[in-house]
Every structure is written in C-alpha cells, then in structure tokens.
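Same chain as my last thread, 92 residues:
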Amino acid sequence: MKNLKKIPQFDNEDKEREFWSNNDATEYINFAKSKKMYLPNIKPTTRSISIRLPESLIYKLKNIANKKDIPYQSLIKLFLAEKVNEEMKKQQ
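reply #2:
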C-alpha cells in the first residue's frame, strides 16, 4: 500500500468540491478499509435551473398537479425522474 497524502482542511464546501474535482481520491483515501453506510436522512444536492416551456404545457402541468394535490414543480420533478429512469433502463 502506498503512502497516502494528508487531506487538507477546507474553508467551505466550494473549496472542497474544487479540490476533489481536481485530485484523485485514491491518493488520499484507502478505499479497501471503507465500509457501507446507510444515510436515511441525507438530502440530495439540488440546483435551480431556468427552462422555457410553452404556456399551454405549464397550464396542463398545473392542472394535473392540482388534481394530485402537489406543487406543479414537484410534479415536473417526478415526471422527469420517471422518464430518466425509464431511459436509463433501456440503455442497460
């Protein structure tokens, strides 16, 4: 086993993210000693985006969301996730 480099201290998550995107984690972490973890309360990182949609589509989405009693943006996320999962299964 090679000598591992010391992981630096980071001032914030952005600096840590930048560090790990430019460095090989195998030079800092012995993954042979890693263990599986279950993190039930962890929330995935989200990012806001802008997307232009036809007004008629937005109206339809809001109508469906209203019938399901959920926010329309949550409905859009559900529809996108379902379609992405469907497409990923096709690629396997």
